[in-house]
Amino acid sequence: MAVSRDGPSPGPVTTGPRPAARARRDGLRAYAARVLGGVRDGERGPLLVVAGLIVICTVFQALDDKFLSPRNLSNIGVDVVGTGLVAVGIVFVLLIREIDLSVGSVSGLAGAAFAVLNVNQGVPEWLAVVVAVAVGTAVGAFHGAFFAWVGVPAFVVTLAGLLVWNGLTLYLLGASGTITIDEEGLVASLTGRHFGNDLAAYAVAALGTAGYLLAAGRRRSRHRAAGMPYRPWGGVWLRTALLAVVSFAAAHTLNRFQGLPLALLIFLVVLVVSDYVLRRTRWGRRVYALGGGVEAARRAGVGVDRVRIAMFMVSGTLAAVGGLFVASGLTSASPTTARAAGSGVLLVNAIAAAVIGGTSLFGGRGSPWSVLLGVLVIQSLASGMALLGVEDAVQFMITGGVLLAAVAVDALSRRSRARDHP
């Protein structure tokens, strides 16, 4: 059994024409037909999410011409990072068919721990950051161990964690209330610093485009050598061209305001590293194998307990890092924000970002890159409704409706695949 980017997949078919021969004969036209056919059959991909994002931008721009302004788009690019980092951690857990309901509380706990250590106790910023992130890692290890070794369902463990860590956060902040962090310090610069030199944004766009072309070309060569279906060069160049247009347009827009945000650059680096780990390492293949089935993974030699604990550790770590970015944007840690994180707003947005982008709630399918599109949808909706003065209650209802629609599409897609491949 081979393990692909989206989880375990059957080996090449041995009857009929070889897949490589089919790909060579079909060419770009047949490849495009297969992509569109997959969308019609319920196979979610970036096409549907991109189409939805275009509709969102068009509608809000028509209602308020400030929506696509360089300032607002730059603010969206910064605002997506906190939720996006938490959502990347959620992806790791979803891939093994589990859920982590504590990420919002863990993010609040990390922000509070940093503020208390740095501001109240005088601990150097860098050390306070390390401790705050380590707290998230330790919490994730605790959840994973309870789930893997004790046998308590992950849903119950992390639900209890949501309450416990939110309570601990309020306890830490209780004596002093709101703690304002240094606006010129390390954490504040995470969301406040921009690279004003135009070359920085364009260099990132060029590196991203070239990196995608190189990775797609290598993947095509490996699939062709293995006799597996592979993307024709026309499809590779088309995707590369589209990526280049979007990347350089984004770079140009950011440069019209304050330049490339440091927060967005860090987020992109996390996405690249996470995707590489999951798709290019043995450990990543074990994650997808576990998402395809626990018993099959165990028989294949996967250390199920170790992988489970590691996934919750990754989730806790990224939740803590995301919490530092949230604190950076607010330049404070307060009981109000802690209650908001613990009440589930950040959790719902993170899960929605992962699922809308294409990560399956049923495990074994998805990637960290799915978070990028998903969180852009969530934050674009929030930004557009804020510009229009839509009250929070309506925003919550709309976000919940979008999440429900994404999960419904995921379920229908899964049912369609089960029917086609009984």
What this model shows, in words?
The structure is a single chain. The chain is mainly alpha-helical and 422 residues long. It has a single domain (53-196, 258-415), classed as Orthogonal Bundle (ABC transporter involved in vitamin B12 uptake, BtuC). It has 17 helices and six strands. The chain has a two-stranded antiparallel ribbon with strand order 1-2. Strands 3-6 form a two-stranded antiparallel ribbon. It has a two-stranded antiparallel sheet with strand order 4-5. A hairpin with a 2-residue loop joins strand 1 (2-4) and strand 2. The longest helix has 29 residues, at 392-420. The chain is globular, with a radius of gyration of 22 Å. The two termini are 17 Å apart. Mean pLDDT is 85; it is low at 1-26 and 39-43.
Summarize the structure.
It contains 17 helices and six strands.
Chart the SSEs and their pairings:
Elements: E1 2-4, E2 7-9, H1 19-40, H2 46-63, H3 70-94, H4 103-120, H5 125-150, H6 154-174, E3 179-180, H7 186-192, E4 194-195, H8 198-225, H9 233-255, E5 260-261, H10 262-280, H11 282-292, H12 294-299, H13 304-330, E6 332-333, H14 335-342, H15 345-357, H16 369-387, H17 392-420
Helix pairs in contact: 2-16, 3-10, 3-13, 3-15, 3-16, 4-5, 4-6, 4-13, 4-14, 5-6, 5-13, 6-14, 7-13, 8-9, 10-11, 15-16, 15-17
